[in-house]
Design a protein that fits this description.
single chain; Rossmann fold; 250 residues; alpha/beta; ABC_transporter-like_ATP-bd; globular
C-alpha cells in the first residue's frame, strides 16, 4: 500500500512583482510523514522563500501545494499553520515575556488552563528552561535564547511539520548539537516531519535523511543524504557565496 505524502509541491513558481523574475521556478517534490529534509544552496537560491511558500506565508504565482492530500487554500489558514509551523531565522516575542509568548498561541485555540500548564511544563523540561526564564522579555534574552524560545513556541503547538530557517545561527556549538539531538527525538517519537535550512553542512550531514539542493530558484538535486558528495557541495557553495559577495560589492 502506497503512503500518501504529508506535503506535496506541484510545479510551484514564484515571481517578483516588479520585474517578474523567478524566486522559485517550477518546484515539485513530495514530503512523506516523518522525513528529515535539508534544503541547501547558495545565498539567494530560494531556500527561505520555499519555506514561506510551504507555510502558506507566501502564495505561489503558479502551481499547487497540498497538505494531507488537500489543496492548502482549502484549509483554514490558522489550522494549517498550526500543523505546518515555520520558525524564521529571526523571531520576535512581540513585547511579551517568555511565558506569554509560549501560552498565547494555545489560548487562541481555547485550550483549557490545565492543558496549557501541562504543555508549558513540558517545554520547560524539554528545553531545560529555568523557571525564571518565563518572566523574561525579549530585550533580556540573548540571540541564542530567543532562538530557543521561538523553537519552543512551535513545539508547544505540537505541529505535524516543522520548518526551520537557520535554527542554529545564534547557538553555540554545544546548543547546536543539543538541538540536533532533540529534533531527532521529536522526529522518532512524534513522527514529526522536519524541513531545515542550515549553512552548517556538518550539522546537516548528521541530521538529514534527504537533501534538496536549490540553485537560482530551481531544484538542482533531490537525493538521499547517503548519496551526497559533501566535500563537492561545500566547495561549490563556497564559490557561489563568494561570487554573491563580489556582486554585492559592485
Amino acid at each position: 500500500m502506497s503512503i500518501s505524502p504529508i506535503l506535496q509541491a506541484k510545479n510551484i513558481s514564484l515571481l517578483t512583482k516588479i520585474h517578474q523574475n523567478h524566486l522559485l521556478d517550477n518546484i515539485s517534490f513530495d514530503v512523506n510523514e516523518g522525513e528529515k529534509i535539508a534544503l541547501i544552496g547558495g545565498n539567494g537560491a530560494g531556500k527561505s522563500t520555499l519555506l514561506k511558500v510551504l507555510n502558506h506565508l507566501c502564495t505561489s504565482s503558479k502551481g499547487d501545494l497540498y497538505f494531507r492530500g488537500k489543496l492548502v487554500h482549502h484549509w483554514d489558514v490558522l489550522k494549517f499553520r498550526r500543523q505546518v509551523m515555520l520558525i524564521p531565522q529571526e523571531s520576535k516575542l512581540l513585547g511579551m515575556n517568555v511565558k506569554s509568548a509560549l501560552s498565547y498561541p494555545l489560548q487562541l485555540q481555547s485550550l483549557s488552563e490545565k492543558e496549557i500548564q501541562t504543555r508549558l511544563i513540558y517545554c520547560l523540561q524539554e528545553f531545560n528552561f529555568i523557571e525564571s526564564w518565563l518572566e523574561k522579555r525579549e530585550n533580556e534574552l540573548s540571540l541564542g535564547q530567543k532562538q530557543l524560545v521561538a523553537i519552543a513556541r512551535a513545539i508547544i503547538m505540537q505541529p505535524s511539520v516543522l520548518l526551520l530557517d537557520e535554527p542554529t545561527s545564534a547557538l553555540d556549538k554545544g546548543n547546536a548539537h543539543w538541538l540536533r539531538e532533540k529534533l531527532q527525538v521529536w522526529n522518532e517519537e512524534k513522527k514529526m516531519t522536519i524541513i531545515v535550512i542550515n549553512h552548517d553542512l556538518e550539522w546537516v550531514k548528521n541530521f538529514a535523511q534527504r537533501v534538496i539542493w536549490l540553485d537560482k530558484g530551481r531544484i538542482k538535486k533531490d537525493l538521499s543524504a547517503k548519496l551526497v558528495d559533501w566535500e563537492m557541495i561545500e566547495k561549490h557553495l563556497l564559490i557561489l557565496n563568494q561570487e554573491m559577495n563580489i556582486d554585492e560589492d559592485f
